[in-house]
Each structure stands twice: as structure tokens, then as C-alpha cells.
Amino acid sequence: MSSVDIEARAEALHRRAIIIDGHSDILMPVTDGKMSLADRVEVPDGWQSPFLIPESGLGIPAQALFFGPMGQYDVPRLREGGLTAQVCAIYIEDKELGWAVERGLHMAWHFHHAAETIPGFEAILTTADIQRIKAEGKVGGILSLEGFEAVGPNLWMLDLYYKLGLRIASLTHVRRTFYADGSYAAAQPGGLTASGSAAVRRMNELGIVVDLVHLHERGVWEVLEMTTAPVILSHSTSTMFPREGVDAIGVMGARVPRPRLTLPRDRAMLEALRDNGGVLGVIWFYKIDLDDVVADIETALEVMGPDHVGIGSDLYGLELAPQGLEHIGKMPALTRHLIERGHPDAVIEKILGGNFLRVFEQVWK
Fold first, then answer.
1. 3-class DSSP assignment, residue 9
2. CA-to-CA distance for 240 and 38, rounded, in angstroms?
3. What structural domains does the chain harbor?
4. Element (H or E) spanning 233, and its range?
5. For the whole prediction, is pTM greater than 0.85?
6. Three-state DSSP class for residue 313
7. Does 159 have pLDDT greater than 90?
8. Among 89, 110, 267, 240, which residue's Cα sits nearest to residue 173?
């Protein structure tokens, strides 16, 4: 197939596909007043902080810590990337734990304010919304929780978040919470608490997709044993990050440590997610380039099959983005590369969003 034929096929496929990205942290800078989702944001080159911002223990440079996912997600880039739906997470930083519930509600308010004021951008509450938004050429956002800190100790808050549009939720990030232990929360981390088990049951009842991301592996197995619905790993990897130490990878000419941000995967866990009917959203963050992302997708396809692989970009800082997929507007390059690698159109459509849509159709009420 010639390059012209590949380009035409990729353009047609990308135009007709429902495209869903499983994770972004863009609500953080929006809520902080650093940007509006309406505007195409450009992060300055060679920016120097006017005050000291130390690099994080996860190897995240100061510029990425300040700007976060700015310049990587906004409505103009979502349109450029052909997105139908972008998952927008509520995540609570350590410095916000003292007012976590207030911060979470503030982020939910900004999500809905964007949907009410930005032409062509809507809050997605049902799978019918996804189909309609696709048909109308619009873009939608799906509200998620990355950790239950924003719920606080009162599980009834989950019902309130559901009324505010919450449709996906993970119990923790990497820290220990009232509900569960994160992927490296303590020297001897555990699984779910009694409240965590109650939260999973309530999510099943409400029709909220349970997200296993960042949960310690003991908790992953506990959720898979008790859930009555398919679950997801919204932004993770099919390959193993090291349990001890970090890999050093090349990012924009520098050697940067690859952090243990996602739970190390083993084949049994991926197969269990497959058997549950769930989906792994392949992460872009800390990947080297487009080839690295596609290699991860192909490993997931080999282990889990074409019905259980999706996209969970989780871009956070231009310095840490894969070459060729620096922002969500570059999504068509992924479609084109999957075609070049010989994957059938039907499989690519499932990866781009069809598999996440299938889970939403099974879970959302």
C-alpha cells in the first residue's frame, strides 16, 4: 500500500471512529486558573520559574510540575485530534488533602462550567451522548475520579458526584487512603478496606466504571473477585516497570528516570482483566516515541486480544511526551501508524474508542 493510500485510509478511519481517551489531568490547571479549555494554550520554550520548583521524586521536571498538561489538552487540540470524548480526572495533590472534598467539587464545577460556556464542548452522561456528539461533530468530556480523596470518608458523597456527572472512578492514586492502598503506598501495602469494598459495590449499583489504575495489586485482585461489572485500567501499560529502582529513558535528549507510576503488569493480571470484559488504556506518558506507544499496544493485543485495548494518554508535561504524540491533537498519527503496522480497520476502531464505549454501554445506567 502506497503512502498516499495509507494516508487516505487513515483519514477516513479516523473520521468515522468514535475516539475516546481514557485519562487526562487537564482539570488541574483549569481549576487553578492557569488556562481555559476554550483556548489553544502554548507553553513557552525555555521557561524559567521565578521561584524554586524542585523536581519531583518521580523525575518530573520543574516546568512540567508548573504547567502540567497545559499545551497538551484543550478543546482546539481535542478537535484537531478527532476526539469524541476526553476523560477529565479529579485528582487531589498532597498539598490539597486538607480540603480535598472542596477541591474535588471545585474541579467538578469547572468541568461543567466549561461544558456550559464553550461552544461544541459538552459533558457526557450517557452513551447516547457519545453517539450524538460524534454525529454532530462535537467534543465531549467524561468526569472521573483519580482517587477517592475527593469523596472523603462519607461514601454518600459518591452519590452526589454521580449526580454531578461522575462516570469513572479509581479508589486511590499511589498513596494510602480511607478506601485502599495505592501501588506503592507503604512498605507493606495492602488491598481494600471495608469502606473500599463498599465503594466498589456502590459503584456497581450506580453504574460508575471501576478503574483499577494505581491500585496495589492485592486490591486489584480483590476488585476483580467482587465486581459485578467490567472494569478498566484507564491509563497504564502492558509492560512491567521495575519494582525496585527506575529505568532511565531518553526524553528530548536527556536521561530521565521512568517512574513507577503504574502498577507493574503481569500476564495473569492482564488476562484476568480480559476475562472480566475490561479494557486497558495504554498510557503515553513517559513513552519515548510513537513507536514505543504502538509497541505497548501490540503487547496488550497479544496478551488480551483486540476487544480489551484502548487509549489512556495521561500526558503531563511536554518534556515527558513521546516524540510524535506530544499532545492529544496528534492522535491521527497513532491511527496512521497502526495502519502501517498492518492492523485491520475494525481492530483500530476498537482501540481508538470502541472498546471503552462497549464497557460504558455495559456499566452506565
1. helix
2. 37
3. 3-363 (3.20.20.140)
4. strand 232-236
5. yes
6. coil
7. yes
8. 89
